[in-house]
Amino acid sequence: MTVPDTVLTQFILTLSASHGIITFNISPGDVLNRAVRIILIIIGTLSVGLAILGVILPLLPTTPFLLLAAACYARSSERFHDWLLNHRVFGEYIRNYRDHRAIKFQAKVLGIGLLWLTIGISILVMDPVWVKIMLAAIAVGVTTHLLSLRTIRS
């Protein structure tokens, strides 16, 4: 007698309860999808936290973390994704970047200004020349990216 393939592709999770045994059939795809969803939600939540820190700390970028959070939430939780896109502070920022590849003029000026201020101070206090060159290269790259985005005047 052969066992059907569907039975072979299922994990049987048996829990002992005080009133008997409860059995759940969970397919490997469900376990993997659930695990991936949980991991994506965790990464998205950590990214939102880093984005919030990026608002306070000028050296930490906000946009990449918000975009990462939006991407993780889009693939894992409709509720978290909707919350982020409709957030009163971050929602408009993400939608402008995602839909129009644009940021507001004030954000662009402030971002570039704070970037060069903090990188400039770091270059002055750092000792190894290679670190100074690396910091300057990062600042040039980020500035180039920000200037390549469309500007929304408000």
What does the model show?
This protein has a two-stranded antiparallel ribbon. A two-stranded parallel ribbon has the order 3-4. The chain is of the alpha+beta class and 154 residues long. It is built from seven helices and four strands, in the order H-E-E-H-H-H-H-E-H-H-E. It has a domain at 102-154. Helix 3 packs antiparallel against helix 4 and helix 6 (105-125) runs antiparallel to helix 7 (129-148). The protein is globular.
* Helix-strand pattern: HEEHHHHEHHE
Question: How many beta-strand elements?
Answer: 4
Beta-strand content estimate: 5-15%
> Which structural class matches the secondary elements?
alpha+beta
What does the main sheet amount to? 2 strands, antiparallel
Name the average pLDDT.
79
Helix content: 55-70%
- The low-pLDDT segments are 1-26
Number of helices: 7
Radius of gyration: 23 Å
Spatial shape:
globular
Alpha carbon gap, first and last residue: 73 Å
Oligomer: single chain
Strand order of the largest sheet: 1-2
